């Protein structure tokens, strides 16, 4: 079944509004209030997600036992949304507690008893994660703080769910320079603690990727980390990819936690330069970017090469 969509360059979520970038609470109200996007990359990304979930179960899925209720709540929210918003691809039939979820894209059907784990092949967060391109992180709110207590994560930008599990919001952000030690992380946490049901938020995060690889987990660093060696003006356009994370935040009212979804998009530099406004703006952002941010994002050693490439072609 085909998925119709605009060309990549027209639908790519480019994050910069101006010629300079600093960490800030760049969250805005999410309109429409929808978590899932289905793009033409659906088939290859779902195949890759499922491959990683099978091969590396601990790297890609973690959930503390007390999150089971929240997992059911998230799965119900996403199944309802898929059947309503993407009704050409998904249906959901409910007869009492007996639910049948049908994914037309994959021609897969599953009938289960809502709330009864023995009737589902996976834990609910993992089950629904196998049908959507988004990675799904659940934060539990308690004692005036937020804890990363569950997640289905296949495409992290160099972080580890297994390592972060159970950490507070400030703890798992502690590697981020400026954000973690300027008071900004505390402010954003306050904002998240006050988030209301039915009023979701969204923000874009960005970084750079060597190659088209979505799984840049810390655990697999030995497979992708060395890619930055050997970059030059002739190959950088093909090898380097701009990486945007479309992040969305939802209050999960029954469990009073937060669902944080991440949809990752990649755009090769040699396509990015076809949009001269973006290429020019990105070049200025790089020229102006504080070193700690470039270092954290992992490209400080070849930032001059990127600037030279963008100057030449934009
Ligand atoms: C509430 C759900 C959120 C979760 C689960 C989350 C999780 C994370 C994680 C795991 C990292 C990587 C840290 C590392 O290097 O180990 C990160 C980075 C970061 N987060 Fe969050 N985050 C959330 C919300 C936010 C929000 C609302 C902001 C708003 C400003 C934010 C700002 C940042 C920034 C600036 C970075 C550094 C990213 C980069 O430069 O590439 N986060 N986040």
Tags for this model:
seven-stranded antiparallel β-sheet, 14 helices, binds protoporphyrin IX containing FE, alpha+beta, three-stranded antiparallel β-sheet, 314 residues, 34% helix
Helix content: 25-40%
Termini, distance in Å? 37 Å
Which regions have little confidence, pLDDT < 50, spanning 5+ residues? Answer: none
Helix and strand element order:
HEHHEHEEEHEEHHHEHHEEHHHH
Mean pLDDT: 97
Q: List the total number of helices.
A: 14
Oligomer: single chain
Task: Please state roughly what percent of the residues sit in beta strands, choosing from under 5%, 5-15%, 15-25%, 25-35%, 35-45% or over 45%.
Answer: 15-25%
Hetero groups in this structure are: protoporphyrin IX containing FE
Rg from C-alpha positions?
Answer: 20 Å
Q: What's the β-strand tally? A: 10
User: Largest sheet, if any?
Assistant: 7 strands, antiparallel
Number of domains: 1
Major sheet strand order = 1-8-9-10-6-7-2
Structural class designation:
alpha+beta
């Amino acid at each position: 079944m085909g998925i119709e969509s605009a060309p990549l360059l027209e639908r790519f979520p480019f994050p910069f509004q101006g010629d300079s970038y600093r960490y800030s609470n760049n969250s805005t109200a999410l309109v429409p209030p929808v978590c899932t996007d289905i793009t033409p990359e659906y088939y290859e990304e779902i195949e890759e997600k499922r491959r990683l979930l099978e091969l590396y179960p601990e790297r890609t899925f973690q959930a503390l036992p007390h999150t089971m209720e929240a997992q059911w709540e998230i799965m119900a929210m996403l199944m309802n949304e898929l059947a309503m918003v993407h009704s050409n691809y998904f249906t959901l039939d409910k007869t009492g507690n007996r639910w049948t979820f049908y994914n037309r894209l994959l021609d897969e059907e599953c009938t289960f008893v809502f709330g009864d784990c023995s009737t589902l092949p996976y834990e609910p967060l993992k089950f629904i994660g196998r049908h959507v391109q988004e990675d799904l992180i659940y934060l539990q709110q308690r004692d005036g703080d937020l804890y990363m207590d569950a997640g289905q994560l296949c495409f992290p930008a160099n972080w580890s769910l297994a390592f972060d599990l159970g950490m507070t919001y400030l703890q798992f952000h502690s590697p981020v320079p400026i954000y973690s030690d300027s008071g900004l992380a505390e402010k954003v946490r306050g904002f998240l603690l006050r988030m209301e049901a039915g009023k979701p938020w969204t923000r874009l995060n960005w970084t750079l990727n060597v190659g088209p690889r979505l799984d840049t987990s810390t655990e697999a660093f030995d497979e992708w980390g060395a890619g930055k060696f050997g970059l030059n003006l002739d190959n950088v356009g093909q090898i380097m990819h701009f990486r945007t994370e479309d992040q969305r935040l939802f209050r999960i009212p029954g469990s009073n936690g937060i669902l944080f979804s991440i949809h990752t998009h990649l755009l090769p530099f040699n396509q990015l330069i076809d949009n001269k406004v973006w290429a020019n703006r990105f070049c200025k952002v790089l020229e102006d970017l504080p070193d700690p941010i470039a270092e954290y994002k992992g490209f400080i050693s070849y930032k001059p090469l990127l600037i030279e490439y963008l100057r030449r072609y934009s």
